[in-house]
From TrEMBL:
Belongs to the KHG/KDPG aldolase family. Gene3D superfamilies: Aldolase class I. It is an enzyme of class 4 (lyase). CDD domains: KDPG_aldolase (cd00452). Homotrimer. InterPro entries: Aldlse_KDPG_KHG, Aldolase_TIM. This is 2-dehydro-3-deoxy-6-phosphogalactonate aldolase.
Length: 203
């Protein structure tokens, strides 16, 4: 089952990347992001992609430039996530055949991202748009647009967001923080998957 969840491993180190990723994949999340403001992020992506690219999508977050897109691709990443909507980054990502998840918050940013070929919209920070904002913006987006909520989302509020029109989530500090034990990351990932599946199982 391909769940519409992205595990955000901000701060992960290369020496722990493989173990943490294995735990998250075992829990049922198969799209994993290493933000570029982590220690040696490209090295972590390289390690993760080499070990898990046959069973998971490994990508980068906080990607701000075309040059960074190229570096992520060279490291084996298969998707790019950004905190902002920058057309050059979206287009460069898609030209390389990678998934593009640009950060958006306004209708203008949403439609700009879609026009440039974004794979899905990353609403960030989700708490700023809010449930009512998501309902309003979902009403004008083209049918089939994938919308992922990021920032302040976790297993306690998945159901509210999904009912309002979200398709999935990027999960950061609720899942992983630097220094967190692998066992605790695994337990958190299992909770996220259970909450996501519970909603979809009832639909």
């Amino acid at each position: 089952m391909q769940r519409n969840l992205i595990a955000i491993l901000r701060g992960v180190r290369p020496d722990e990347a493989e173990a943490v990723t294995a735990a998250i994949i075992d829990a049922g999340i198969s799209r994993i992001e290493v933000p570029l403001n982590s220690p040696e992020p490209l090295r972590s992506i390289e390690i993760m992609a080499r070990a898990f690219s046959d069973v998971a999508q490994i990508g980068a977050g906080t990607v701000l430039t075309v040059e960074q897109v190229a570096a992520v691709s060279a490291a084996g990443g298969s998707f790019v996530v950004s905190p902002n909507c920058f057309s050059d980054v979206i287009e460069a990502t898609r030209m390389r055949g990678m998934g593009s998840f640009p950060g958006v918050l306004t209708p203008s940013e949403c439609f700009t991202a879609l026009r440039c070929g974004a794979t899905a919209l990353k609403v960030f920070p989700a708490t700023m748009m809010g449930i009512e904002g998501l309902k309003a913006i979902r009403a004008v987006l083209p049918a089939g647009t994938q919308v992922l909520m990021v920032g302040g989302v976790d297993d306690s509020n998945f159901a509210q967001w999904l009912a309002a029109g979200a398709d999935g989530f990027g999960i950061g500090s609720a899942l992983y923080k630097p220094g967190k034990r692998v066992a605790d990351v695994a337990a958190a990932a299992q909770r996220m998957v259970a909450a996501y599946d519970q909603y979809h199982g009832g639909q």
